[in-house]
Amino acid sequence: MANVYDVLKERGFVEQVSDEQGLRAALERPITCYIGYDPSASSFHVGNLLTIMALAHIQRHGHRPITLVGGGTGMVGDPSGKTEMRQLLTPEKIQANGEAQKKQFSRYLDYSDGKALMLNNADWLLPLNYIAFLRDIGRHFSVNRMLAAEAYRLRMETGLSFLEFNYQMLQAYDYLHLYRQYGCILQMGGNDQWGNILAGVELIRRVEGGEAFALTFPLLTTSSGAKMGKTAEGAVWLDSELLSPYGFYQYWINTEDADVERFLKIYTFLPLERIGELCRAKGADIRSAKEVLAFEVTRLTHGDAQAEQAREASRSLFGSGGTSEAVPSTTLSATQLGGGIPVAELFQRVGLVKTRSEARRLIQQGGAYINEAQVTSVDQVVSLADVQGGSLLLRAGKKRYHRVVVS
Length: 407
Fold this sequence. Notes:
The protein is of the alpha/beta class. It has helices at residues 4-10, 20-26, 46-60, 91-105, 122-125, 130-136, 143-148, 150-155, 162-165, 167-182, 194-208, 245-253, 260-267, 272-278, 287-302, 304-320, 334-338, 343-349, 356-364, and strands spanning 16-17, 32-37, 64-69, 117-120, 184-190, 213-217, 230-231, 234-235, 329-332, 341-342, 368-370, 373-374, 381-382, 391-396, 400-406.
């Protein structure tokens, strides 16, 4: 079997590594590695999915991943990549978010028989004796070096709280704890975590005389410069309650041509040879590669049935012009629609736009449609007379659909 380091590098996961030769040699035998996750939300988005896919590749090559929920560090807040202090969540909210995240990990990783571990750093951080921690751990940290780290340097202009200043020590202590208790020798994360991860590597060397490694992933953006996982409508969540499987599928089917091959390598398990074949197509023919990308990522995230349904819905809408039950929908009563609803209000109510003023701009720019007929007036009122086959099909722009079912 190939060395998983080579696999990660070929597929575009590796941005920086502390000791490439040493890590590659260590990965010739089974190791334990980990990634920490901030429990600031109840769901991951597709930006987080890159890190989870890296863990899945590592597990498939015989290694043991640890997914670490930051129940303890989440009570401090990571200053990395932030221009202002994160909003502190209550312990109850942090715990609830952590539990929700655990369910999502299980879609990609196999936790049976100890093949992967799911831990929460609150278990060892919250009981810490602060004075003992400062004596045993804090003495190994140089304030000058910490302030030179990018995460802290960026915050010095806007103000860095003492609470946040402790974050790097706590994350480094996580690595030391996992090294001691589970033999963990590799921590991975986004490239904005490079300084924090190296601090853990150095702490293990100083305290235990042990060898450990750091590896970071690129912070992905699309070819047009947009942050991965962000759209005008908000984050592309993995939770079907926050984003329907159809909406998730549509995000991937709308991938920019220049990004298709890169995303197939990162977000699917397809062999590189197959990806190369798919991406030789140019122009309109690249659509088939986008469909494979959308189907594979949706299948991993939401299961075969939902992926099939989303693919059928997309083909139906953008092929024959029909509709499918997988399209996001809202139910209105005949009574509600009987008196008529202003078109801007209707588009806002179903979530195609955030505000009525945004809906009016959409109409004025020619991007609003009802039953594939362009809405030409901001004063149009939608009524029962517009219903076809028991529903209305709304469209915002070229590819965002919503069905209004009339009961």
